[in-house]
Design brief:
Blueprint: H1 3-16, E1 24-28, H2 33-42, E2 47-52, E3 71-75, H3 81-86, E4 93-96, H4 105-108, H5 110-131, E5 135-141, H6 165-184, E6 187-193, E7 195-197, H7 205-215, E8 219-222, E9 229-230, E10 232-234, H8 235-245, E11 252-255, E12 261-262, H9 263-274, E13 279-282, E14 297-298, H10 303-307, H11 316-330
Parallel strand pairs: 1-2, 1-4, 2-3, 4-5, 5-6, 6-11, 7-10, 8-13, 9-14
Antiparallel strand pairs: 9-12
Helix pairs in contact: 2-8, 5-6, 7-9, 9-11
Length: about 325
């Protein structure tokens, strides 16, 4: 076999290999960014019930799956316990992705993170307990670490001191998940994501930059001083991490990359692609970060996930470059 064909075969395996098969799966937040990508990955080999209240997600993200016999969608709020219990019969695994994912929004509305992240998760756990659903996969975040004193940050790092309401609410949700798992024999997997980017993305630095340049292609205003440096993981690698690692080890994994990308690098890449004549202006922020609650330097130690068999395809800057094309194409 020629080397080129061998490489093509490997990448076809990477694309087609399915780690979850023949299950009845509920995905909360199914119409959102990561949720809709998870639907796309799982729907070929599983029965998928997508749940979303459409407060931030959109049916446009999942409309292409409506014709699949394996997919059903129900507009439903996870906090509606009675309605949730009615649709949980026969579910094997719940992938819980519904949340307020806009970290900055929580600064102006401190209740939203508690309500949509912590309270909603507790309600879901109660429904699972009453309906005897025994496996949960949870989308958590690197924000639970706060300004970590160890970079890259391992899962064992502590004490955990989130600096955003978003991070605090996710940490509270994690705590309830682990306590329910111990008390009621759930199998739970918690994944702490680095910054997830890619197709169908509707918030975050890349999306914000592209939207700003659509309004003014002569100037890009950047929050912070540009030296913010974080790890970016492509949504495809994120989804594969959840499906490949769920149920393994102690159920707690970081998902990210081994490298970081600066905000100034992202600004340069976006401007070069969409508005080459635009001038970049850094407006500063607390300690050089973008806003209160923004973690300036973030990189997760992903060695535990790698030891357990996960492999990611895109390094941090490659994830950013790919997402710039994907988000720009749909913007």
């Amino acid at each position: 076999m020629k080397p080129g064909r061998k490489i093509e075969k490997i990448f076809k395996w990477y694309k087609d290999y399915q780690y979850v098969k023949n299950k009845r799966i509920m995905i909360t937040g199914a119409a959102g960014f990561i949720g809709s990508n998870l639907v796309e990955f799982l729907v070929k080999e599983n029965e998928v019930l997508g749940i979303d209240n459409l407060s931030s997600g959109t049916e446009d993200n999942i409309r292409e799956f409506y014709s699949s016999k394996n997919f059903k969608f129900k507009k439903l709020d996870v906090k509606d316990k009675d309605e949730m219990k009615q649709v949980m019969n026969g579910i094997d695994i719940v992938f819980h992705l519904s949340a307020n994912a806009d970290v900055r929004r929580g600064f102006d509305d401190p209740v939203i993170d508690f309500r949509e992240n912590a309270l909603a998760t507790h309600n879901l756990l109660e429904c699972m307990r009453e309906k005897d659903v025994k496996e949960l996969v949870f989308a958590s975040t690197s924000a639970v670490y706060g300004n970590a004193g160890i970079i890259p940050t391992p899962e064992t790092y502590g004490p955990l001191k989130p600096i955003s309401h978003y991070g605090a609410s996710k940490l509270a949700a994690e705590a309830f998940i682990f306590s329910f798992s111990d008390n009621y024999d759930f199998k739970s997997s918690v994944f702490r994501f680095a910054n997830v980017v890619g197709k169908r993305g509707t918030h975050g630095v890349i999306f914000d930059f592209i939207e700003k340049l659509k309004k003014d292609n002569k100037r890009l205003e950047v929050l912070g001083d540009g030296t913010q440096s974080k790890s970016y993981i492509h949504v495809e690698d994120c989804v594969r991490g959840m499906t490949e690692l769920h149920g393994k080890g102690d159920g707690l994994f970081n998902l990210g990359t081994k490298e970081r990308t600066s905000v100034s690098k992202i600004a340069d890449l976006v401007v070069s692609r969409y508005a080459p004549n635009a001038k970049i202006r850094y407006v500063g922020g607390p300690g050089g970060a973008g806003w209160k609650g923004d973690i300036k330097v973030m990189q997760l130690d992903v060695s535990k996930a790698l030891r357990n068999g996960w492999k990611y395809k895109f390094e941090s800057t490659e994830s950013v470059k790919t997402a710039i094309e994907e988000i720009g194409a749909s913007a």
